[in-house]
Design a protein that fits this description.
17 helices; about 5% strand; mainly alpha; 7-stranded mixed β-sheet
Amino acid sequence: MRFRPPHVVWTPELRWAFIRAFGPVEHSAPGPLASPEAVSVARAFDLGPRIAARTPYHVLQAELGAEAAREIVIEGLMAEAVAERLLGFARTIAEVAAEIEAPLAFLKGAALRLQGIGPPGGRWLGDVDALFPEARVAAVDAALARRGMLVEGFPPTEHHLPPRHTERGETVEMHVGLPGLRLGAGRSFATFDDLHARGLLVRIDSMPGECFVPRREVLVAHAVVHGIAQHGLAPRSYPMPRMLADLIDLGFAGRDAAARADELFPWIDGDVSREELDALGALCARLEAGDSGLFADEAGARGEVTLLQHAVAGSLDPDYDRSLRPAALLSAPTGRSRPAALGRLLRGLFLLSRAQIDIIYGPQKSWRGYLFRRLARPFDLAWRLVRSLAAGIAVRSRRPT
């Protein structure tokens, strides 16, 4: 288990958010609640829409009061509107691919939505992720450029091209591999052709062209790698409860989780440990059952408890989040040799594009500002490392002995 979170104090608002997001609808929630704090906690975990989708309005009103209940419901309505808009954008992507006879498979939130997995309006969709055959992805990228879609300005990653977006902000990531998911021998990430050859793609007839989504077992494995290996040590960029919600909706809980773990683990071995995978299955099962023992101060050091405390502290404890950042840089899945991956990491850290500078430091007024940021980058990284180490010391001092 790669996580060592500090002790979490389970406030009524924290317990309420997890019970309402994951537990049986008929379970009563703890009270009394500080309504603004409950809404804030739900938002920190990206769980507001899910709570709104699963909980009757009269229950929310009784527990939170009319104003806070309306805030949660409005989040759900906004999430549904965004999802519908992005599904329309996904159709555009499929149409462009069909015009040049390029197959594709939608991933993550789009894949769940296209199959009706999860409560309607219960999940934020931030962009559209699609997997293309490596031999065709450049042609799709060029076709999207001809449609007027702009490139984000980031360098390509090991598993996808630089994202493209419309003027309205809809973004697509064109993947050539699923990071951390390896179906055969070697270090290569699973590709569209790998999934297709093994019968691990399901045709979506409601979309134009050759449009697919991965089978559920692939979606589970991809969600686990994405939530644990890619973003587990960077919880502010991807709150872990989002992964837990997807896994529960995909049926990864209880006996089914144990059976699937045996099938899935060889695909993700090396990037996710078996202990972490088993702990995820146990956590999903206990959350779905509304097991209040997860939130007890004496819950102990079981794997699922550690994961849950990490999920909470990662989003709410700034010191803990900062202490994880150096390890996050070194733990991402890679299909390259370790020396090659380290070289790529260092180039990415020190040689920033203008778009990266704009995100990290804000837009600069002139070329001199961009030059200064590039020259000062080593000193900034050194300062960030010192802050991370200091945060780690502070976190360790708060861990129970």
